[in-house]
Amino acid sequence: MVSRLRWVVCILVSVSLVIVMSIPTQAKQKEEVKALLEQKLEEKEAIIWYLGHSGWAIKTKNHLLIFDYVETETKPAEPSLATGNINPSELKDQQVFVFVSHSDGDHYSEDISAWEKSITNIRYIFGWQAGEKPNYVCMEARQSRKIDDMEILTISSTDAGVGFLMKVDGLVIFHAGDHAHWGGAMDPFAKEIDYFAQSEQEFDIVFLAVAARRDQRWESITQGVFYTLKKLLPKVMFPMHAGGKEHIFKEFAQEAEMKKFTTNVHYAENKGDRFFYQNGKIQ
User: Fold this and answer.
1) 199 against 143, higher pLDDT
2) 200 burial level (CB within 10 Å; 0-12, 13-18, 19+)
3) Is the pLDDT of residue 71 over 90?
4) pTM metric for this prediction
5) How far apart, in Å, are the Cα atoms of 14 and each of 7, 8, 21, 233?
6) Total count of domains within the chain
7) pLDDT at residue 143 greater than cutoff 70
8) Which of 18, 45, 98, 157 has the fewest CB atoms lying closer than 10 Å?
9) Domain span at residue 14?
10) 127 and 6 part of one domain
11) Residues 159 and 177 grouped into a single domain
12) At what angle do helices 219-232 and 247-259 cross, to 10 degrees?
């Protein structure tokens, strides 16, 4: 009985130590994110956070863009960009644009609507008719909209909704949503990529799905990504859409490297991973 009691005490002490030790770490992360959000960026610069699956946050000179964010069941007590979570109070002073490519549960969470309670300057851009609110913008495929100083263009996804192209603060950013070559004929996928290629934009950063929803890499998906890299010639690409199996991103990057594309492929390994884009490269 005494031995068992000692064992329980040891476990409780260990857990307490972990909690106590994590508090300074969380505080440090919070301060780092605060400093990054306050950092003055130049045109064509960006700070990028990976938010899991197809979710990303991108800080540019004058904007904070959030793409396809889904709230997970397990999240830290103090959510932060540093852990790959959105904490609205962390972003309350930012000019926030929330992009949602389509309504599937791995790309859209209704929880995002509550952010407007904390963030004064926030707009939502949906790839379908999501409702009517003053700060909602609903876009169809192959449509263009100018919002303030940002231009948004869309393509039709091969799954649902749209892919977004943004021209903002000197950057051209493409988040494909679920637009991928899921199999069958290449034409439905390729014609949308060709539509963007004809615009003769100089693409800075693209985010492309490299796996199916069940975390499977299909040859058709890979060939579709390779087609996109050849047609759009982006400076940097981030693989996405792996359902938490981030090792898939590394596998894809290694395969792409063998093809010797001009595009630099970078990948996240954990939620909250951060990247700095400057001079056409990840620094």
Assistant:
1) 143
2) exposed
3) no
4) 0.88
5) 11, 10, 10, 51
6) 2
7) yes
8) 18
9) 1-38
10) no
11) yes
12) 50
DSSP line for the chain: -HHHHHHHHHHHHHHHHHHHHHHHHHHHHHHHHHHHHHPPPPTT-EEEEEEETTEEEEE-SS-EEEES----SS--SS--GGGT---GGGGTTS-EEEEE---STTT--GGGGGGGGT-SSEEEEESS-----TTEEE--TT-EEEETTEEEEEEE-SSSSEEEEEEETTEEEEE-TT-S--SS-SHHHHHHHHHHHTTT----EEEEE-S-TTS---HHHHHHHHHHHHHH--SEEEEE--TT-THHHHHHHHHHHHHT-SSEE---SSTT-EEEEETTEE-
* Domain shared by 12 and 145, yes or no: no
What are 21's two structure tokens?
Answer: 């030790």
Do residues 83 and 90 make contact, with C-beta atoms less than 8 angstroms apart? no
- Using CA atoms of 225, 226, 227, 233 in order, give the dihedral in degrees to the nearest 10: 100
More confident site: 198 or 7: 198
Say whether both 24 and 110 belong to one domain.
Answer: no
User: What's the chain's length in residues?
Assistant: 283
Alpha-carbon distance of 161 to 232, in angstroms, equals 21
Residues 58/64, Cβ–Cβ less than 8 Å? yes
Q: Taking the CB of residue 180, how many other CB atoms lie within 10 A of it?
A: 25
Residue 105 CB neighbour total at 10 angstroms:
9
**Do 19 and 97 share a structural domain?**
no
Q: What is the mean pLDDT of residues 36-44?
A: 93
Give 152's pLDDT tier (boundaries 50, 70, 90). very high
**CATH number of the structural domain spanning residue 108:** 3.60.15.10
Tokens 């969470």 label which residue? 109
Closest listed residue to residue 81, CA positions, set 44, 35, 148:
35
Pair (22, 108) in one structural domain: no
- Do both 33 and 65 map to the same domain? no
Question: Do residues 44 and 33 share a domain?
Answer: no
